[in-house]
């Protein structure tokens, strides 16, 4: 079909309008970038700025900014998709953020896509390296965070700010793929990362080493712009964590954290935490290996690997100015022991507090008055205590029977000094070692109208203040 002059004119007009709109968007992007960075102390340069054929995108290339204080920003391509006033997405390719200060971090990413941002520019005015944007979603590929300092890097979960705890440490963390949603400078609604690997300095009890993590996801990370101790997290889950460091070699199949207590319950669960004690002993100083090997043999029956499962669950129920706090905890060590703790505490809340809000943020019991309560703890023998007499007897140069007799005598002596309840607990542990019992259970009844601070002030006097029952089975 041939094109009539009228149709040709209409097509030319539409293409001209589209090209004009696209050119306007490209010009606005260049003007906004130059205004934003040109108004700050430092050096700014920008390469070619162009538009899409039909006005669906504006692209700025080779964006570089070096602030007067040494901060550096580099973006190979900055793309605004859709309408410039209300973009569908902003895409950054070849992103690099760093600081001249050797104590700070360097962040790079192959590609960053911000969906439905509130504006075409992601940087708050006057803060070139703080991308404090609000957006519907975020996707990052090839993310790398490197620390070049001498201390331990402690970074917020969104990767944007360092929390108190020391200067950035030497190390590197790489993330293959990251997605997030419901983003603002104050909160992250959800975040997921896959393919995480890192190396660097950990806490003193861990030391320097490397780790890998198959996936990490979190929900409800809030109050990021406030003090670190006010940051809240509703839920976290990680899978397939492997750590090899100076003082820790471990694998963890799964961990989940329910940190949102507003619904009346929360908890932490660890599944298949495997500690490679044999490898950790090899890494320990030579003078420490003998006692560590002794402890490993008792815990693992010579296998050198200890597998733990753990669950810590807590609940609250508001009853006017009173509340009922309950908790169930369990730690199970394969072929070693199982420890259970059940807590039920009726409490009176402070005057003038909203019960639900107060209980949802309750970190400890110092502000409440105990109205009695029950605590039950049970220690079950799964092999650990049966192995102890032989090892302990050999270390003392006596026979097993003589060791058990000495242990029984010491338990009675401690009971004479510290009270019959403590003596009963120690005697129950000897029963476990002697094979005369499979579980040791301790039940505590707390006094009414008591405060936690008063009970903790004199721990040795606690047995006299509590009602304690000790049973072995």
Automatic annotation (TrEMBL):
<protein>
    <recommendedName>
        <fullName>DUF2125 domain-containing protein</fullName>
    </recommendedName>
</protein>
<feature type="signal peptide">
    <location>
        <begin position="1"/>
        <end position="24"/>
    </location>
</feature>
<keyword id="KW-0732">Signal</keyword>
């Amino acid at each position: 079909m041939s094109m009539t002059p009228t149709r040709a004119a209409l097509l030319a007009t539409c293409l001209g309008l589209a090209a004009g709109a696209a050119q306007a968007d490209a010009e606005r992007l260049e003007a906004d970038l130059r205004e934003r960075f040109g108004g700050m102390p430092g050096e700014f340069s920008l390469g070619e700025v162009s538009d899409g054929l039909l006005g669906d995108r504006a692209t700025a290339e080779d964006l570089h900014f070096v602030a007067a204080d040494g901060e550096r920003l580099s973006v190979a391509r900055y793309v605004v998709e859709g309408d410039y006033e209300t973009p569908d997405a902003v895409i950054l390719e070849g992103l690099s953020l760093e600081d001249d200060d050797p104590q700070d971090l360097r962040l790079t990413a192959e590609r960053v896509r911000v969906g439905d941002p509130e504006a075409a520019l992601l940087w708050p005015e006057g803060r070139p390296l703080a991308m404090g944007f609000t957006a519907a979603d975020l996707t990052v590929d090839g993310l790398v965070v490197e620390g070049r300092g001498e201390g331990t890097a402690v970074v917020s979960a969104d990767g944007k700010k360092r929390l108190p705890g020391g200067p950035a440490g030497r190390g590197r963390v790489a993330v293959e793929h990251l997605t997030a949603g419901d983003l603002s400078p104050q909160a992250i609604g959800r975040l997921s990362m896959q393919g995480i690997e890192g190396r660097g300095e950990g806490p003193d009890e861990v030391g320097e080493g490397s780790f890998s993590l198959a996936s990490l996801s979190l929900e409800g990370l809030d109050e990021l712009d406030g003090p670190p101790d006010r940051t809240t997290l509703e839920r976290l889950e990680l899978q397939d964590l492997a750590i090899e460091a100076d003082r820790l070699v471990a694998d963890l199949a799964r961990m989940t954290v329910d940190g949102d207590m507003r619904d009346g319950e929360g908890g932490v669960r660890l599944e298949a935490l495997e500690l490679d004690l044999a490898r950790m002993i090899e890494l320990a100083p030579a003078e420490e290996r003998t006692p560590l090997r002794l402890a490993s043999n008792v815990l693992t029956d010579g296998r050198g690997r200890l597998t733990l499962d753990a669950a810590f669950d807590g609940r609250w129920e508001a009853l006017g100015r009173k509340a009922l706090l309950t908790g169930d905890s369990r730690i199970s060590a394969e072929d070693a022991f199982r420890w259970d703790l059940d807590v039920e505490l009726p409490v009176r809340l402070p005057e003038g507090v909203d019960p639900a809000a107060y209980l949802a943020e309750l970190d400890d019991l110092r502000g409440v008055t105990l109205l009695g309560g029950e605590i039950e703890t049970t220690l079950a023998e799964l092999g650990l205590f049966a192995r102890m007499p032989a090892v302990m007897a050999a270390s003392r140069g006596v026979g097993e029977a003589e060791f058990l007799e000495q242990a029984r005598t010491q338990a009675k002596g401690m009971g004479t000094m510290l009270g019959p309840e403590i003596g009963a607990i120690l005697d129950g542990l000897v029963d476990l070692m002697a094979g005369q019992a499979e579980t040791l259970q301790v039940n505590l009844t707390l006094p009414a109208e008591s405060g936690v601070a008063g009970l903790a002030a004199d721990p040795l006097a606690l047995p006299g203040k509590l009602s304690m029952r000790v049973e072995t089975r």
